[in-house]
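README: folding subset

This subset contains proteins for which both the sequence and a predicted C-alpha cell string are available. Records are stored as plain text. Below is the entry for RNA polymerase sigma factor (256 residues), shown exactly as it appears on disk.
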Amino acid sequence: MTEESKVYNEVSPEDINAWIADYQENDNSEAQEKLVLHYQKLVESLAYKYSKGQAHHEDLVQVGMVGLLGAIKRFDVSFERKFEAFLVPTVIGEIKRYLRDKTWSVHVPRRIKEIGPKIKKANEELTNELGRSPKIIEIANRLEVTEEDVLEAMEMGQSYNALSVDHSIEADKDGSTVTLLDIMGESEEGYDLTEKRMILEKILPILTDREREIIQYTFITGLSQKETGEKIGLSQMHVSRLQRTAIKKLKEAAMK
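--- output ---
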C-alpha cells in the first residue's frame, strides 16, 4: 500500500479532527486538501442520489463540495461525534437549497420559496394544538407574516413543477427510484438541527431538569407540545409556558 492510499483509505476519526483543527487554526491548505480528497466520493454519491445521473449531476457535485468546505470551516472538533454526522446533512442541505432555487418552473421570489416549508410545519403544529385545521390568519400569526404572504406561497407552491410529485426519476445502481417529492426544495431539518443540537449541548445545563426534558422532547425528539405534555404529565399550556421560559434562557446564554 502506498503512503497516499494509506492516507486516504485508513483514516481514523482522530486524523479527521486533527486535519480540521489544523485547517481552522493554521489555514493549512494541505489539511483542507486531504479532507476534500477523503470525502469527495461521499459528496459525489450524495449528489448522485438527487441527480440520478441527469445533466445537472456535475452542478450538484460542485454544490456538494461547497457544503463540504463549509462543514470543514464550521465543525467543532471539541464535540465527541464523528465529522460525517455533521457533514452529510450539511451537504444535503446545500443540494436541496440549490434544487429549490433552480428547479421551479416559473420565477418565484425567494421569500415565497422559503416560507413554503414553514407553512406546512405551522399547519401541522396548529392542527395538533387546535384540534382542527388552522385558518390562514392563524398560520400567518404563527409565522409572523401577512395573510397575503401565506396565500401567495400556497398558490406559488403549485408552480414548483408541472409533473406530478409522484413522478419517478431514473433508478440508481441498486434498483431503487426517487420521486420529485423526494427532491423538492424544502428545509432539511437534519441540516439545521445538527448545529443547533451542538450548541444546545453546551448551554443546556443552565435549564432546570423539567425545562431540559421539555426541550429534549419538543426540539430534539420532535414531539408536539400536546404529546410532550401527555408524556410528562403536564397540560399543553404548562408545557408551552415552560418551553418559552427555557428558550429565553437559552437565547440569553447563546448571546453571551
